[in-house]
Each structure stands twice: as structure tokens, then as C-alpha cells.
């Protein structure tokens, strides 16, 4: 549907890559260029595709825990600039 409306590239993201049922087969055959996920759930070898990018979340969680423990702002982690 998006391609028919002139979209040139399609990207998707999800926090927890469960990929149950036929999800991998559907992702492999769809026009989505890249699916960006976090490593909160390991992506099994049979579910790894070139178009799936896994981002590590440990550094972000570690920084958030540090900020909470030391009384610093968590919101500041997400400010641009």
C-alpha cells in the first residue's frame, strides 16, 4: 500500500523482537528495507535476516540506572544537541 502511494523506502522498528509464527517469513517477503530491534530478546539464528538490525540496549539501561542512583536527570539522556 505504501509503495503504491510513492513511498521510496520503508523502515520498521520494534522494542522486543518476538517474531512468532510466520513473522520472519512475512518480513523476508515484504518491501520493508530494514527492521530495527533491540536485544531485549535474543534473535535466534533461524530468525536472523540481513534486513534485521539489532541494537544493544545495555549501555542505555546502564546509564539510566547510574543517573537514578546519582540523582541525575534521565530526561537529559534524550535531549538532542
From TrEMBL:
Pfam families: Pribosyl_synth (PF14572)
Protein name, entry field: Ribose-phosphate pyrophosphokinase N-terminal domain-containing protein
Gene Ontology biological process terms in this record: 5-phosphoribose 1-diphosphate biosynthetic process; purine nucleotide biosynthetic process
Organism: marine sediment metagenome
Matching PANTHER family: RIBOSE-PHOSPHATE DIPHOSPHOKINASE FAMILY MEMBER, RIBOSE-PHOSPHATE PYROPHOSPHOKINASE 1, CHLOROPLASTIC
Any GO CC annotation of this UniProt entry: cytoplasm
One example GO MF annotation: ribose phosphate diphosphokinase activity
